[in-house]
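Blinded run. Sample ID left blank on purpose so nobody reads anything into the name before looking at the predicted structure. Input follows.
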Amino acid sequence: QERVAESGGDSVQAGGSLRLSCVASGYTYPTLCMGWFRQAPGKEREAVAGINTRTARTWIVASVKGRFSISQDNTKNTAYLQMDGLKPEDTALYYCAAHEKRWAGFCTESATDYNTWGQGTQVTVSS
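Blinded prediction complete.
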């Protein structure tokens, strides 16, 4: 019942922008951690950014800070990843993930903390 679905991936030229969307559904608990992760061929999955849906507190990794930002429309249970100044190195399959935040502490960058994952949306950046 609980699931997330991401969309918005595309093929763009370097310097372009994309906005990815992630819709969470089936949750009754009000506070979620929602995060974005990505995986390029031959590389491990890496964290990108995340948000606490109640407090709107965010985290973002240094490698994309200043180019990417995360936000939400809580009325739509949707998190967004705005990606500007895209580089070929950003090419990856981007995943959205979520889990209920039932305990104190911050939403984390650890993929193991997230128990609901989308199918991924492909972002390809050409030079």
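Unblinding after everyone has recorded impressions. The radius of gyration is 14 Å.
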